[in-house]
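Ops channel
N.P.: pipeline sanity check, posting one input/output pair.
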């Protein structure tokens, strides 16, 4: 018996690979999270989107979001009562700067088997076609694992600019969300987003959930059990942040981010995900991003400092 979704919604997700919109967190919580991110950017001199993995462990508020009952109730109806959070990413798209996300499948890079992960994309600002909301191509989660080219395009927000070069996007659907609402999409659905043509930042957090029987195909890794029990033991526990930018937790996040962009790790993920139809690699150097920070905030961050993240 589903908790919050109707049988029709569950069937729609099975057929189409996405569902939206759902009411998630309040507008005061989304505004406070945006303030946290702006404070981080001001203090660190880099974008919060450079935290390419496990952003939910970096701030108390994002940690609470990752365990929010309204979010987990929907996820539970899609993948069952026992739920791990693998990772998360702040997706910040400044107004008029041309950033975009190319068509891709998350499954090509997550190194998971079977592919049952659900991404929750929680809007921290309104997310619309004008400011480059997430777009999905319905039903593609039931199709093939596509070949991805790694472009490392500076304007592509993906860690490697991974792109499906040829895809019919005539049926693409915009996932339009108000701040505080969220969408869900399947690990294998083809999705992306266009540039932000407004003057304001578009921000969301994508949180990646999977059931405990899912294994890592790229060695032992960590994840956070956010609901239920783990009867499989495939995953080691992530640390729990006691405060924003908790120094030990942050070091764990940095190490996981470095592993994520490590070429050997990446190649193994690609090999596992795509089998013999290898992903073509067009690698450039993995340089930290040195773009100017767009806006400033007044309040200070906790005193801890962080090591550098690679570019997300
Ligand atoms: O935020 C975006 O524009 C893209 C998000 C995305 O690719 C994802 O959540 O997997």
């Amino acid at each position: 018996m589903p908790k919050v979704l109707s049988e029709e919604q569950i069937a729609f997700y099975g057929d189409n690979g996405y569902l939206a919109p759902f009411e998630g967190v309040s507008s005061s919580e989304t505004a406070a999270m945006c303030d946290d991110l702006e404070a981080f950017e001001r203090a660190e001199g880099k974008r919060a989107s450079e935290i390419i993995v496990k952003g939910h462990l970096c701030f108390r508020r994002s940690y609470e979001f990752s365990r929010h009952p309204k979010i987990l109730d929907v996820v539970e109806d899609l993948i069952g009562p026992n739920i791990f959070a693998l990772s998360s990413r702040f997706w910040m798209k400044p107004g008029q700067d041309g950033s975009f996300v190319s068509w891709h499948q998350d499954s090509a890079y997550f190194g998971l088997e079977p592919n049952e992960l659900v991404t929750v994309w929680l809007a921290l600002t309104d997310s619309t076609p004008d400011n480059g909301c997430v777009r999905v191509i319905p039903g593609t989660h039931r199709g093939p694992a596509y070949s991805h080219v790694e472009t490392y395009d500076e304007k592509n927000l993906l860690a490697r600019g991974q792109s499906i070069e040829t895809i019919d996007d005539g049926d693409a659907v915009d996932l339009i969300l108000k701040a505080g609402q969220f969408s869900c999409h399947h690990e294998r659905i083809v999705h992306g987003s266009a540039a932000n043509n407004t003057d304001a930042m578009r921000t969301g957090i994508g949180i990646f959930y999977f059931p405990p029987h899912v294994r890592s195909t790229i060695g032992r890794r960590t994840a956070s059990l956010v609901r239920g029990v783990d009867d499989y033991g495939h995953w080691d526990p992530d640390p729990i942040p006691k405060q924003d930018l908790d120094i030990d937790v942050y070091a764990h996040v940095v190490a996981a981010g470095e592993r994520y962009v490590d070429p050997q790790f990446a190649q193994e993920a690609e090999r596992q995900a795509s089998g013999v139809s290898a992903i073509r690699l067009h690698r450039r150097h993995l340089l930290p991003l040195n773009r100017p920070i767009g806006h400033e905030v007044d309040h200070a961050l906790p005193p801890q400092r962080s090591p550098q993240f690679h570019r997300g």
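N.P.: looks fine end to end. The chain has a mean pLDDT of 86.
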